[in-house]
């Protein structure tokens, strides 16, 4: 069930290993992480999210006053170490609060590494944000797609999109008759479809990927085949990989309104010439793609006075979309449902926007961290990507993700469970 289970907080956890093994693991991990950050920063008054009182030294370039921190940790009484272990312990209770009494040195090494990791993580994020959050192109208008500015909810505060030629957005049509995909445009779509779309009145599902993805990304391919297999619909996949290239996140975010506008123009052509039913259109967007879906919805409505039937936001991106004027919202379609899997603060490597933005917002496992995901750098987007897989699973499985409303949030979930008068809602269907 979508709301069962407990949050999986990131962190380092004690194992059944010797102190020497802990030293090796901690130091190797620290060295690798320092290489990753290039150790080129200076920082004072370090915030370690609950362990600030353990720090007297400063971070000067590459030199960390590790010995002083270790001395302070070693001097702490058992009761204080117990409370720190409680702070860092994971949710499957592999660590006991009594662990300091059994293996004090291992606990100290774990705490030291975790504290250093938190500092370096914050510094790395600050460096990355200073690199990517640069002013983008000026707000502008393109003849076929209209104007892009915050005033018409078609641009971000950081700037406007690149030109359509630079963006290189492509649309690929998939059907059970044509499962390999065919390139479609606003001018050739009728020939490609052979009018089958009009005659069959099939629903139209549209998949929009996110940052550094493409139409060939595993999740996109999997969702496309699942939609064809389990729904009576045609599928269009929006490929905007050239406008969403890594590491240019701010550029990709600023380009998302153009992606939405280009998709809207394609849908308008279908609507004007073939009586496309807007209510049968379902946009499914992941991360930045969720906001692109929102831009498409508002652009389409401005042009036709008709709303798109449904938009599903799969963990909509948080960074640069804090302003609800640009973010996906319930105004962008007749029905907007959102699945939050990694919502929160970018400084905690939470990539999604956690605020409610749809008619219904789902928060599986609290909406920030998903079970089975870790804090490893190689696993950094695990919780974020889980939104793809939850939606795919909801289509494939006969066991539905039943969810219940809980107005006061995840911490009150046990209380909400006892409210038997509330009808469960199914996530993802």
Automatic annotation (TrEMBL):
Which InterPro entries does the annotation name? AB_hydrolase_fold (IPR029058), Lipase (IPR013818), Lipase_N (IPR033906), TAG_lipase (IPR000734)
One protein family per Pfam: Lipase
Record localization: Secreted
- Gene Ontology molecular function: lipase activity
Q: Where does the Lipase domain lie?
A: 141-412
Q: What is this protein called?
A: Lipase domain-containing protein
The superkingdom listed in its UniProt entry is: Eukaryota
Give the CDD domains listed for this entry: Pancreat_lipase_like
Which interval of the chain is the signal sequence?
Answer: none
Q: Per the record, what is one GO cellular component?
A: extracellular space
Q: Name one GO biological process term.
A: lipid catabolic process
UniProt keyword terms in alphabetical order: Secreted
* Stated family: Belongs to the AB hydrolase superfamily. Lipase family.
Q: What's the source species for this entry?
A: Amblyomma maculatum
């Amino acid at each position: 069930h979508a709301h069962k289970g407990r949050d999986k907080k990131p962190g380092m956890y004690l194992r059944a290993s010797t102190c020497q093994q802990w030293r090796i693991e901690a130091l190797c991990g620290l060295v690798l992480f320092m290489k990753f950050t290039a150790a080129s920063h200076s920082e004072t008054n370090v915030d370690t999210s609950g362990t600030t009182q353990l720090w007297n030294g400063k971070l000067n370039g590459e030199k960390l006053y590790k010995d002083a921190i270790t001395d302070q940790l070693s001097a702490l009484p058992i009761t204080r170490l117990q409370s720190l272990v409680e702070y860092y312990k994971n949710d499957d209770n592999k660590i006991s609060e009594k662990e300091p009494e059994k293996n004090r040195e291992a606990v100290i090494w774990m705490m030291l590494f975790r504290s250093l990791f938190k500092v370096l993580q914050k510094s790395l994020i600050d460096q990355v944000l200073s690199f990517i959050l640069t002013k983008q192109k000026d707000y502008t208008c393109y003849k076929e797609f209209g104007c892009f500015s915050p005033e018409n909810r078609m641009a971000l505060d950081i700037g406007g999109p690149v030109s359509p030629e630079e963006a290189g957005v492509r649309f690929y049509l998939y059907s059970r008759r044509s499962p390999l995909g065919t390139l479609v445009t606003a001018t050739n779509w009728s020939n490609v479809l052979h009018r089958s779309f009009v005659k069959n009145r099939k629903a139209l599902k549209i998949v929009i990927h996110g940052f550094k993805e493409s139409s060939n990304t595993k999740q996109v391919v999997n969702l496309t085949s699942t939609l064809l297999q389990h729904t009576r619909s045609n599928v269009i996949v929006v490929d905007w990989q050239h406008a969403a290239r890594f590491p240019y996140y701010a550029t990709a975010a600023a380009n998302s309104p153009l992606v939405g506008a280009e998709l809207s123009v394609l849908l308008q052509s279908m609507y004007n010439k073939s009586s496309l039913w807007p209510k049968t259109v379902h946009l499914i967007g992941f991360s930045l793609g969720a906001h692109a879906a929102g831009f498409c919805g508002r652009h389409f409505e401005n042009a036709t006075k008709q709303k798109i039937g449904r938009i599903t936001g799969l963990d909509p991106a948080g960074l640069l979309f804090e302003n609800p004027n640009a973010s996906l919202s319930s105004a962008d379609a007749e029905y907007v449902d959102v699945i939050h899997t990694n919502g929160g603060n970018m400084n905690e490597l939470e990539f999604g926007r956690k605020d409610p933005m749809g008619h219904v917002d789902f928060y599986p496992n609290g909406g920030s961290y998903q079970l089975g995901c870790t804090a490893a750098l190689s696993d950094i987007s695990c919780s974020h990507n889980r939104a793809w897989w939850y939606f795919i699973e909801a289509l494939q499985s006969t066991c539905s993700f039943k969810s219940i409303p809980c107005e006061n949030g995840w911490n009150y979930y046990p209380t909400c469970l006892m409210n038997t008068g509330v009808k469960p809602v199914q996530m993802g269907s």
